[in-house]
Design brief:
eight-stranded mixed beta sheet
């Protein structure tokens, strides 16, 4: 099917949905909500098509005016200038429509579970993990997202062995999903007396937060163990069996939670993380079966893939997937991630467009 035929089909479906929603029987049935959602999803595409059509019609009118020998010189010059602007504008409008037509990731509008873990590099890796976790927390603030810390395992010198947070708001997963992978840092540790540059790493995993309707977990598939919490936490630590460890027996996925004093709250948090991990596992299995879809992604989302290097001596950040280097490391570590994320999204869209064109 050509692009023109595809666009005509979208407009026809949009008109059909409007008629269906206007019918009384649709409003009285359970179909109205799904029809309304499909209609609202198609509306931006239809509006984009209308802009392209109007621009092309205007360009045709201008071309007619320019070709008319009775058009005076001043009007012809104005028409030529406007025609040139439209020639540059129309391809951009068409690309916007094509992007809107790309298959949507059902998880894009979901909230996310963010996990950051120290990798190779000892204390320096743990300090870098803490820096990354803080970077995402500050980015969430700039986006006006809610950043809820769910679990933290500290090293005692300001570093993090691991940290888990729930990030909620509009389009969270769509903007954070390319952050999964190995983040490498090159810098002189504060503990290094010789001033030598060390390389260490931290692993980031971003998973869409799944609802119960997204992933069903059978009680019989779970083993739940309770134990006494350990580490910092005040007088209540080690006095009650409030910590919870949940093992999903079919997959072997294990989630532990001990930050809350309440066993019930720890179990609820652990289930949120478990649900997200199982949902992401299912998504990756489905992606692996769709080879073409996999090729169209910027990075595989694999936690073992090295995706970015933060070079402190040179003040630069390099994303290895798209060969992007930004010389504003301080601002990025302070949560200024939009430029890097926008570039990743654009590259992902460009690859997908190339596959369908």
């Amino acid at each position: 099917m050509s692009l023109k035929e595809n666009l005509q089909k979208v407009v026809a479906r949009h008109d059909e949905l409007a008629d269906l929603m206007a019918a009384q029987d649709a409003a009285s049935s359970g179909d109205f909500a799904s029809l309304s959602k499909e209609y609202s999803d198609l509306t931006p595409v239809v509006e984009g098509i209308a802009k392209v059509t109007a621009a092309k019609e205007e360009a045709a009118d201008l071309a007619t005016m320019m070709a008319d020998p009775e058009t005076d010189q001043e009007m012809r010059e104005m028409a030529e200038a406007e025609f040139q602007e439209l020639k540059e504008k129309i391809p951009l409008l068409e690309k916007q429509v094509q992007v809107l037509l790309l298959p949507k990731d059902d998880a894009d509008e979901k909230n996310a579970i963010l996990e950051v873990r120290a990798g190779t590099g000892g204390d320096e890796a743990a300090l870098f993990a803490a820096d990354l976790f803080r970077m995402y927390q500050r980015y969430a603030e700039t986006q006006r997202w809610k950043f809820e810390i769910m679990a933290v395992n500290e090293t005692g010198i300001g570093g993090l062995k691991e940290a888990v947070a729930s990030v909620s708001g509009r389009g969270v997963f769509a903007r954070l999903k390319f952050e999964s992978g190995v983040h490498r840092v090159q810098r002189i540790p504060t503990t290094e007396s010789g001033g030598r540059i060390h390389t260490s790493a931290a692993t980031v995993a971003v998973m869409p937060e799944a609802e119960e309707v997204d992933i069903h977990i059978e009680d019989k598939d779970l083993r739940i163990d309770v134990f006494r919490a350990s580490g910092p936490g005040g007088q209540s630590v080690n006095t009650t069996d409030s910590a919870v460890r949940i093992t999903h027996l079919p997959t072997g996925v294990v989630v532990s939670q001990q930050d809350e004093k309440s066993q019930h709250k720890n179990k609820a948090k652990a289930m949120r993380v478990l649900r997200a991990r199982l949902y992401e596992h299912e998504r990756q299995m489905a992606d692996a079966k769709r080879a073409a879809n996999r090729k169209s992604q910027v990075g595989s989302g694999d936690r073992s893939e090295r995706i970015r290097t933060y070079n402190f001596p040179q003040g630069r950040v390099t994303d290895h997937r798209i060969n992007l280097t930004l010389h504003k490391l301080d601002r990025i570590m302070d949560g200024d991630l939009d430029e890097a994320i926008d570039a990743l999204i654009s590259e992902d869209q460009a690859r997908k467009l190339a596959e369908i064109s």
